[in-house]
Amino acid sequence: MASHRVELPCKASGHPAPKYRWLKDNRPLEPDTRFRQSVTGLLIERAQSSDTGAYVCEVWNSYGNAEVVGTLLVKEFLKVVVSPRKVKGSVGSQVSLSCSVTGSEEYQLSWYRNGELIYPSNSVRMTGQNRENLVMAGMAKSDGGAYQCFARHSKMSAQDYVQVILEDGTPKILASFSEKVYNINEFVSLTCTVKGTPEPRVTWTLDDDAVVRDSRHRISHYTSAEGHAVSHLNISQTQVPDGGVYRCICNNSAGTVSYQARINVRGACQINSSNTPSHIHIDMS
């Protein structure tokens, strides 16, 4: 077995004392600190699968030579490693796991979640020659727990597992704007800071109509050092029609949240023509 000490017997006698040479697969044995010639043969420390092969021990002195042939087969224990080692996701997100198996080229592989066998479905894919990659979309809260990769070959088996932790990734607004009164031509800056996983997308509305970007209305987004989404709505040369209820809407695959507040602009009363129908038809029949 791999990692064990192995001795290939080759004890020669004669006078003058015989000299030794080892061949592996018909080539001189390459130097290795794990190999050591002893009185009784060749010692191999911490045998590896790469040590497998046909060995020849050649001995000779001034009177003649001799050789002995043998085969070494080093079997490794099955070893399974699941990666990544730490998995933190959110409800609604995608989680991918990979299972690496060493010790055999042939094996059967199965995935388990909390001790129950996982089957492919619309939201679960298993890829790779031996289904060693597990991809799960739209994770639900109940999908969290211990994920185990189990490999079998002949009478050998091995397993490894990782803990998948799913957090509530529903957007949460951390900072926002408040109701305020502005003067005409005064600069207005509204901010919404939100956290969530995946990172939420932020949109803006004024009185339930989408805010249209133009030379006076600028919207910018960036991600803070803490991983929070920050969105700014800046209004220059503010006019009376810019007043109303502003809402920032934050959504991701885990959910949607919004915040609203009224922004007032001092000035004479105006009717917003964009919200007023130009023709009204009433059928009296």
Describe the protein:
- The protein has 285 residues and is mainly β.
- It folds into three domains: 55 residues, Immunoglobulin-like; 89 residues, Immunoglobulin-like (Sandwich), CATH 2.60.40; 94 residues, Immunoglobulins (Immunoglobulin-like, Sandwich), CATH 2.60.40.10.
- The protein is 0% helix and 52% strand.
- It is built from no helices and 25 strands.
- It has a five-stranded mixed beta sheet, with no helix packed on it. The chain has a five-stranded mixed beta sheet with strand order 18-25-24-20-21, with no helix packed on it.
- Strand 13 and strand 14 form a beta hairpin.
- The protein is elongated, with a radius of gyration of 36 Å.
- It is a single-pass membrane protein.
Please give a quick description of this structure.
The chain is mainly β.
In angstroms, what separates the terminal alpha carbons?
96 Å
Task: Tell me the series of helices and strands, N- to C-terminal.
Answer: EEEEEEEEEEEEEEEEEEEEEEEEE
The average pLDDT is 90
Helix content estimate: under 10%
Category from helices, strands and their pairing: mainly beta
Largest sheet: 5 strands, mixed
Count of domain modules: 3
Architecture per CATH nomenclature, i.e. the level-2 architecture of the largest domain? Sandwich
How many H/I helical runs?
Answer: 0
CATH topology term of the largest domain:
Immunoglobulin-like
Q: How much of the residues is beta strand, in percent?
A: over 45%
Taken from the alpha-carbon principal axes, the silhouette is: elongated
